[in-house]
Amino acid sequence: KERKLILAVESSCDETSVAVVEDATKILSNIVASQVLSHKRFGGVVPEVASRHHVEQIIFCMEEALEEAGVDAADLGAVAVTFGPGLVGALLIGITAAKAFAWAHQLPLIPVNHMAGHIYAAQFSHQLEFPLMALLVSGGHTELVLMPEHGEYQIIGETRDDAAGEAYDKVGRVMGLSYPSGKEIDELAHLGEDVYHFPRAMLKEDNYDFSFSGLKSAFINLVHNAEQRGQTLDKKDLAASFQQSVIDVLVGKTVRACEAYQVKQLVVAGGVAANKGLRTHMAAVMSERLPEVTLVIPELKLCGDNAAMIGAAAFVEADKQRFADGHLNAVPGATL
Ligand code: KG4
Ligand code: ZN
């Protein structure tokens, strides 16, 4: 049987990544060059700095991905690349590299939506079953996506202001933590208690939208008022209170959406899906309320940005004959 191999490229934000994926489910290599240290001192991703890093890293990442997978260009069936959403300059580096590689080796080019990639990261741990609900939680997005079948997406709810990961990073800055602070807040939260009981925005409203800016403001006000009184609040309790509010809203709305749309499977994906509190709380509530729905959360190292997930999603795009040519451009505001 002929092997089906895709070389996938991801450069939408602050990781340069290239992977070789076989048959949509097997990762032969997944090279991730993180720039996070370069952005830390600015407290966030600086687009121009990101582009420059991608330019420096992309060729090495491609070479390393092929070498680690033990294949060369002649073994590949296609090249896949993230076309959006993301930073325009960052996206263009990956797109240009992928186009050049595809052209040089006469391979088809497959454009992949970054958020679809996050969902398809789940396919490395479990076969996807439809209809499927996906909770996408990352630094730039928070949305509930209904998938009637492979490669078809309907957004049924999304954040009206900040994304969940963005809220983590902003609150982390107020706590004096370094960027990105999601992981550290998660660790602190497990050592503290929900003593401040922040608002659970929109939880009781009859829709699937989210809002995290009110929580962020409540958090900042609490910390600043305490500072003015000369008090410092316990970081562990602050983290635990913030995190519990985020989790209650994410879990509450997601479970309700799964019920309403009678899905077979729930996928939780994106950088914030690495959150230990979210993973355990979602699993507990789902098994109690909807035991018939399978919950799939990608393994930790595949929650953050990586090219293997782009490769997995690309197999579906190829089946649907959704290819691109040399005119492929970046779409910074692409939606699913
Ligand atoms: O998906 P991702 O790697 O990049 C985007 O596409 O945005 O997500 C990055 C986000 C950051 O906001 C980061 O703080 C958050 O994911 N994050 C976490 C955790 N690990 C990463 N948030 C909460 N808990 C974590 N353990
Ligand atoms: Zn992402």
Automatic annotation (TrEMBL):
<comment type="similarity">
    <text>Belongs to the KAE1 / TsaD family.</text>
</comment>
<feature type="binding site">
    <location>
        <position position="275"/>
    </location>
    <ligand>
        <name>substrate</name>
    </ligand>
</feature>
<keyword id="KW-0012">Acyltransferase</keyword>
<keyword id="KW-0819">tRNA processing</keyword>
<dbReference type="InterPro" id="IPR000905">
    <property type="entry name" value="Gcp-like_dom"/>
</dbReference>
<dbReference type="GO" id="GO:0005506">
    <property type="term" value="F:iron ion binding"/>
</dbReference>
<keyword id="KW-0963">Cytoplasm</keyword>
<dbReference type="GO" id="GO:0005737">
    <property type="term" value="C:cytoplasm"/>
</dbReference>
<comment type="function">
    <text>Required for the formation of a threonylcarbamoyl group on adenosine at position 37 (t(6)A37) in tRNAs that read codons beginning with adenine. Is involved in the transfer of the threonylcarbamoyl moiety of threonylcarbamoyl-AMP (TC-AMP) to the N6 group of A37, together with TsaE and TsaB. TsaD likely plays a direct catalytic role in this reaction.</text>
</comment>
<keyword id="KW-0479">Metal-binding</keyword>
<feature type="binding site">
    <location>
        <position position="305"/>
    </location>
    <ligand>
        <name>Fe cation</name>
    </ligand>
</feature>
<feature type="binding site">
    <location>
        <position position="169"/>
    </location>
    <ligand>
        <name>substrate</name>
    </ligand>
</feature>
<feature type="binding site">
    <location>
        <position position="114"/>
    </location>
    <ligand>
        <name>Fe cation</name>
    </ligand>
</feature>
<dbReference type="InterPro" id="IPR022450">
    <property type="entry name" value="TsaD"/>
</dbReference>
<keyword id="KW-0808">Transferase</keyword>
<feature type="binding site">
    <location>
        <position position="182"/>
    </location>
    <ligand>
        <name>substrate</name>
    </ligand>
</feature>
<dbReference type="GO" id="GO:0002949">
    <property type="term" value="P:tRNA threonylcarbamoyladenosine modification"/>
</dbReference>
<feature type="binding site">
    <location>
        <begin position="136"/>
        <end position="140"/>
    </location>
    <ligand>
        <name>substrate</name>
    </ligand>
</feature>
<feature type="binding site">
    <location>
        <position position="186"/>
    </location>
    <ligand>
        <name>substrate</name>
    </ligand>
</feature>
<dbReference type="InterPro" id="IPR017861">
    <property type="entry name" value="KAE1/TsaD"/>
</dbReference>
<dbReference type="GO" id="GO:0061711">
    <property type="term" value="F:tRNA N(6)-L-threonylcarbamoyladenine synthase activity"/>
</dbReference>
<feature type="binding site">
    <location>
        <position position="118"/>
    </location>
    <ligand>
        <name>Fe cation</name>
    </ligand>
</feature>
<feature type="domain" description="Gcp-like">
    <location>
        <begin position="26"/>
        <end position="311"/>
    </location>
</feature>
<keyword id="KW-0408">Iron</keyword>
<dbReference type="InterPro" id="IPR017860">
    <property type="entry name" value="Peptidase_M22_CS"/>
</dbReference>
<protein>
    <recommendedName>
        <fullName>tRNA N6-adenosine threonylcarbamoyltransferase</fullName>
        <ecNumber>2.3.1.234</ecNumber>
    </recommendedName>
</protein>
<dbReference type="InterPro" id="IPR043129">
    <property type="entry name" value="ATPase_NBD"/>
</dbReference>
<dbReference type="Pfam" id="PF00814">
    <property type="entry name" value="TsaD"/>
</dbReference>
